[in-house]
Amino acid sequence: MSELPDRQAINALFAGNYADPFSLLGMHQTAAGLEVRALLPDASDVWVIETNTGRKCAQLTCLDSRGFFSGVIPRRKNRFGYQLAVNWHGQQNLIDDAYRFGPLLEEMDAWLLGEGTHLRPYETLGAHGTTIDGVHGTRFAVWAPNARRVSVVGEFNFWDGRRHPMRFRRELGVWELFVPGAVNGQLYKFEIVDNSGQMRIKADPFAFEAQMRPQTASMICGLPPKTEMQPQRKAANAFDQPISIYEVHLGSWRRHTDNNFWLSYKELAEQLIPYVKEMGFTHIELMPINEHPFDGSWGYQPLGMYAPTRRFGTRDEFRHFVAAAHDAGINVLLDWVPGHFPSDDFGLAKFDGTELYEHSDPREGFHQDWNTLIYNFGRREVSNYLSGNALYWMERFGIDGLRVDAVASMIYRDYSRAEGEWVPNQFGGRENLEAISFLRHTNRVLGRAAPGSVTVAEESTDYPGVTRPSEDGGLGFWFKWNLGWMHDTLDYMKLDPVHRRYHHQLMTFGMIYNYTENFVLPLSHDEVVHGKRSILDRMPGDAWQKFANLRAYYGWMWGFPGKKLQFMGNEFAQGREWNHDTSLDWHLLEGEDNWHNGVHRLVRDLNHTYRHYAPLHQLDFDGQGFEWLVVDDYENSVFVFVRRDRDGNEIIVASNFTPVARHNYRFGVNQRGGWREIMNTDQHDYHGSDTRNHGVVHTDEMESHGRPQSLSLTLPPLATLWLVRESD
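The line above is the sequence of 1,4-alpha-glucan branching enzyme GlgB; the predicted structure tokens follow.
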């Protein structure tokens, strides 16, 4: 039996320091009968109304002028559903009492959350509209095990932390409350009295929608319905399919010309998606769209992991953008950042007064490079929060894959740290075993719960087995960015052609390790910022040579084994570095036909041709799919190789990286017969010199390069050719 609370408890309640509000508020059985207690600041009188009959049962007495009411309902022993008729400033309101509802978390959810193995923690934690006993409202739940008190505050209670203190589920460290009348579209936060008594106002880590910066509140909104991954989307992610990725920063792909404002998700669906389709890309990769406070982080310092940024529209408008991409036959990848998070007060940092999501030791929990905090992957609730987030984007938005940012910073404890600035693992090594376990687990979860989706690792070291199954000791990613290939080939291309003969190996070295991982060849945003110059501007020579070098390089890239990725602007040879605050330089394609138009058409044709011919993509990760024909012609800076499909069909790729045309250049081939150009980066359409091999070129019974038959071709200056064998 519960008796009338003492003055100390009431004072603690008003001070916001009472950790167990359900023991004090709501309906209680006492010796005198059922007693109802309510905290209603500024109310003048309060009546208890029986829900079933609408009858007034009792008037509550104001025991404290600050708004604490209590009253006994005589001759009633069994609890019943009730409402409160409250008079505020002369106006009567009929409200449901949040403290008449029992515990909310289901037993199985509680068990899985406690274990840190909940496949979909976002279905339980956060804010969820629901109906309990016929009452509509929102159930809130937040993990804050070391807090003294947590209240949900929002537009539904005047942001007053005294009105809705939450129930503490001590066995889980989770606080929960059902708030009647809280509805979709209303803003909220959690008011936390932390372990040291300090007040913290925090956004919901599981918020499905949030305000745009500089505001930071979370928004009540329902979970979006699940989206089934269609067979054609699964097929488009397969290892043997053509994958050409267009990496986009939504805030600067294109802007309104009159006010330099962003395009909305709706406008991007109408403009970006048809453009990507026309250009022949198979996938769009979006730089992080999770809600983030600082534009200049490009999304790489996210705090709203479950909320698409409001910069471009609502959560549902983003879902429609993804659906529009799928309707156009384009898969969508998200750049995902589980490696670190910013220290903004409203976010995850010291969430309950302790280092809850991060490590307490800055040698483990602070990223010196980015001034951000590092997740404590060894804490099961934290890894569950993140792995659940990965599945959330797949299931609820129809995302087809995640590109995982900065994997090397996660898996190495000494990443970018000097001796003495890092803590070894339990075996004395430099590997972050907890992060490795988290990545393996997340990849397994996606493989089982979202079959057909993929993950792509940005991993900048030679960590073994990034794209190998976790059961074989790998990390379990589907693909890995080949940053070694990118650095080597760009280092080669920036050289004056006269010096390239001395650095021939930069273009061939990639094949030494090509089959150790499933590689994507990236020319990403990282390569066109921070003084690195644009890809075009790295090319040597005058304007003609710069563009010719770039076209030859693109022809080489699309012919080389590995999936492709181009950052926006690269496809039309933007001359300046990328600036996230302005639109791409689309004016370069306006006016009379020019070199930029030529590169633009080339990338479009490379994509469509690459997709059409199976030898160019079917065996990217199989040694049978590639063979050098000419690998050692240092003097002429010429490379020739074959791409092959499962049926033995071949495409010849030949590159001449000097400004001198090579006439009658002979090399041995595997297959006799006629060969025809299907791509020539020097042709007139691309603003080249139009040095061509017209018609069909036939092999000669003349030994060359260890083969009994050979071809004699003209290799255009600074150009790449693709040739296909004509049917007999």
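Note on the example: The mean pLDDT is 93. The CA atoms of residues 287 and 530 lie 17 Å apart.
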